[in-house]
C-alpha cells in the first residue's frame, strides 16, 4: 500500500500535543512538522490539573488569536464536519483539551463555558489525587468521588468528551461505566506489554471498547518497552495488542511527541516522584510525526486493510467525537 496516497485520503488525528506555556518555544516548528507529515487534526493541551481558570483562559485566548492569525494554515474547529472541511481545504484542524480539572476549578458548571471556548475533551484526574478522583500513581486507587461523578454527568450533557488517560484504574473504570457516551484514553499504551502505571490494563481496554471508546497509543519509550526505547515497531506491537483483544476500531494515535525535553527534565529534577513512579530521566525517546509513512507501511505488512488503517489513523476517534460533541 502506498502510504502517501493513504495519508492524502485519511484524517490523521493526533490526540496529544503539549501546548501549555512551558512547551511553546519549540511549538511553532513542531506544528510545521505535523503539517508537513500529513497530520489533519491536532489536539493541544492548553491547561493541566495544576493550572487555574484565569491563567488558562488567558493562555487559551492568546493561542486562539495566534492560530486565527494563521488561518491560511490552521482552522480552529468546533465539530467533526469542521475537521473534514479543513482537510479538504488543505488546513490543519486545531482543537484544545485539558489534562485535569484544575482549570475548571473543580466546578462542574464551568465545563459548558470551556466547551464554548473550544475545549473538546478533558481528563478528570491527572496522575495524583484531586477532588474528582485518584490518578494513576495514587497507591489507594480509589474511584471517582461524588464530585467526579457530577463531572461525568455534566460533561455528557454538555458534549465534552471524557479522557481517562492519567486516571487511576478504578477512576477510569468509573468514568467509563458512568458515562452515557463513549470515553477515550487519548494517549495511553498497554500495561501487558510494559508494566507502567500510566498504561492501561486488559480490564480497562475491554471496558472502554465495550462502550465504543478508543485508546490512542503513546509513543514515549517509557510506556512502550522495558529498555525505554521507542520506535514504529514498538507502537505497532501496542496497536496490534489492542486490535487483537477488542478490534482495530478501538485504537488510534496519541503519540505525545515530547518536543519540550528541557521542560520535562526540569520537572523531573524538581522532586523524586517521577523517578519513584518508574520514569527515566529525560530526554525521553518517542516517535516523531515524520515516521507516519513508516508506521502505515508497518501496519500494512502486519495485515491491516485500508478500512482498519483509516480507522487507526483517525476515523475511530472521529466516530467517538461525533457521538460526544454538539453537532
TrEMBL record:
PROSITE patterns for the chain: RENAL_DIPEPTIDASE_2 (PS51365)
One function term, GO molecular function aspect: metallodipeptidase activity
GO biological process: proteolysis
UniProt cross-references to InterPro entries, sorted A to Z: Metal_Hydrolase, Pept_M19
A Pfam family: Peptidase_M19
Protein name as it appears in the record: Membrane dipeptidase
Annotated organism of origin: Rhizobium setariae
Amino acid at each position: 500500500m502506498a502510504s502517501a496516497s493513504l495519508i492524502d485520503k485519511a484524517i490523521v488525528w493526533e490526540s496529544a500535543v503539549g501546548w501549555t506555556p512551558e512547551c511553546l518555544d519549540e511549538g511553532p516548528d513542531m506544528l510545521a512538522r505535523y503539517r508537513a507529515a500529513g497530520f489533519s487534526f491536532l489536539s493541544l493541551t492548553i491547561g493541566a490539573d495544576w493550572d487555574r481558570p484565569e491563567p488558562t483562559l488567558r493562555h487559551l485566548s492568546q493561542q486562539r488569536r495566534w492560530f486565527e492569525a494563521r488561518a491560511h494554515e490552521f482552522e480552529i474547529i468546533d465539530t467533526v464536519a469542521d475537521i473534514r472541511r479543513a482537510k479538504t481545504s488543505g488546513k490543519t484542524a486545531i482543537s484544545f483539551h485539558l489534562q485535569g480539572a484544575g482549570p475548571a476549578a473543580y466546578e462542574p458548571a464551568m465545563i459548558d463555558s470551556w466547551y464554548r471556548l473550544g475545549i473538546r475533551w478533558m481528563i478528570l484526574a491527572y496522575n495524583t489525587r484531586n477532588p474528582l478522583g485518584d490518578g494513576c500513581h495514587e497507591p489507594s486507587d480509589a474511584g471517582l468521588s461524588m464530585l467526579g461523578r457530577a463531572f461525568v454527568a455534566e460533561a455528557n450533557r454538555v458534549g465534552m468528551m471524557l479522557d481517562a488517560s492519567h486516571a487511576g484504574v478504578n477512576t477510569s473504570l468509573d468514568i467509563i461505566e458512568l458515562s452515557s457516551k463513549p470515553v477515550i484514553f487519548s494517549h495511553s499504551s498497554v500495561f501487558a506489554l510494559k508494566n507502567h502505571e500510566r498504561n492501561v490494563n486488559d480490564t480497562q481496554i475491554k471496558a472502554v471498547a465495550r462502550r465504543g471508546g478508543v485508546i490512542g497509543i503513546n509513543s514515549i519509550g517509557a510506556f512502550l518497552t522495558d529498555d525505554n526505547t521507542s520506535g514504529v515497531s514498538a507502537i505497532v506491537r501496542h496497536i496490534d495488542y489492542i486490535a487483537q483483544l477488542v478490534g482495530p476500531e478501538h485504537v488510534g494515535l496519541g503519540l505525545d511527541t515530547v518536543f519540550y525535553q528541557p521542560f520535562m527534565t526540569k520537572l523531573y529534577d524538581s522532586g523524586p516522584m517521577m523517578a519513584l513512579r518508574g520514569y527515566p530521566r529525560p530526554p525521553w525517546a518517542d516517535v516523531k510525526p515524520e515516521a507516519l509513512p513508516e508506521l502505515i507501511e508497518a501496519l500494512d505488512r502486519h495485515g491491516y486493510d485500508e478500512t482498519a488503517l483509516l480507522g487507526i489513523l483517525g476515523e475511530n476517534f472521529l466516530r467517538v467525537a461525533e457521538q460526544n460533541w454538539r453537532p
